[in-house]
Amino acid sequence: MSTPRRAALPTARLVALTALAMLAFAGNSLLGRVALKHTGIDPASFTTVRLASGALVLWLLVRVRGTAAGRGDWASALALFAYAAAFSFAYVSLPAATGALLLFGAVQATMIGHGIRAGERLRGAQIVGFALALAGLVGLLLPGLSAPPLRGALFMLGAGLAWGVYSLRGRGAGDPTRITAGNFLRAALLAAALSALLAGSARLDTAGVGYAIASGALASGMGYAIWYAVLPALKSTQAAIVQLSVPVIAALGGIVFLGEALTLRLALASAAILGGIALFILEKRPAAAAPVAAPARRR
After folding, report:
1. Is the pTM of this model over 0.70?
2. C-alpha angle 185/190/191, rounded to 5°?
3. b/e string for 140-154 if b means 16 or more Cβ within 10 A?
4. Cβ-contact 281, 241 below 8 angstroms
5. Residue 203 burial (CB count, 10 A)
């Protein structure tokens, strides 16, 4: 994989844009939760509107830059669709904070597991970090009064697996915005097929559609575009570490805006998962680390 050259961005601008991208990623969890819990929209319709609005925004960004829209491939689009659909069905029952933590943990576990399968040798601190993160995930899912609903948790773990696959397919890709626009368009068509299949249970309302558009156009489309703009200016380890803030931001947003409770189980699991992942990433050689949210490559 070719490592992108770090761009020269003023520090203040780099920090501001990076923070904005992380807020957008966390915003997806908050928007998904409020739409699927507090409005009448169904998960399939939310997925379709989200992906379609994201595809539109990314297509417009590509056109404004004067390059041809499109690219991507169907295999990557399928992974993107699987992530978005499972994400939506998960947030019917999961709190925003728990969902973001499960999603993030599953993405990182998928990418770390791929590295191990590919022959990457782990050092002592990495083994401890991986075991700590895995223990946090298991502890979060153990039965009990504060355990998340199993169905929703499984959907979100599946979403994280799909996003991890999508990210791995995108390592070393070309123009990320252009490729992501093509994949969003293909994924939106798959989501429309799902909505047609589940037309009997379709439910739409103005608020739900509005949240889905905000999730797709702003938190996804614009969020990814901003992230890909700052990504070349970050070291691989910096890009991976900064994303540890996403579940924390989602948790705070859930408490402040959605009135969700921060349970002791979630706090302990968050510390174990995020701390374990941070320990793993910091121990890696810079050349071996890869950013989490990468676009899917074109074949």
Report:
1. yes
2. 95
3. bbeeeeeebeeebbb
4. yes
5. 13
pLDDT 10s per residue in the chain (299 long)? Answer: 344 444 567 888 999 999 999 999 999 999 999 999 999 999 999 999 999 999 999 999 998 887 665 578 999 999 999 999 999 999 999 999 999 999 999 998 898 888 888 888 878 888 999 899 989 999 998 887 678 999 999 999 999 999 999 988 876 556 788 889 999 999 999 999 999 999 999 999 999 999 999 999 999 999 988 998 888 888 877 888 888 899 999 999 999 999 998 889 999 999 999 999 998 888 765 443 333 444 444 44
Closest CA to 44 of 165, 147, 155: 155
Tell me the CA end-to-end span of the chain in Å, nearest whole number: 15
List, in sequence order, every beta strand (DSSP E) within the chain: none
| Residue carrying the six token digits 């203040």 | 12
Q: For residue 165, what are its two tokens?
A: 């696959």
Directed axis angle between helix 74-90 and helix 43-64, to 10°? 130
Q: Where are the domains of the chain?
A: 11-288
* Rounded Cα gap, residues 56 and 221, in angstroms: 8
Element at 52 (helix H, strand E): helix 43-64
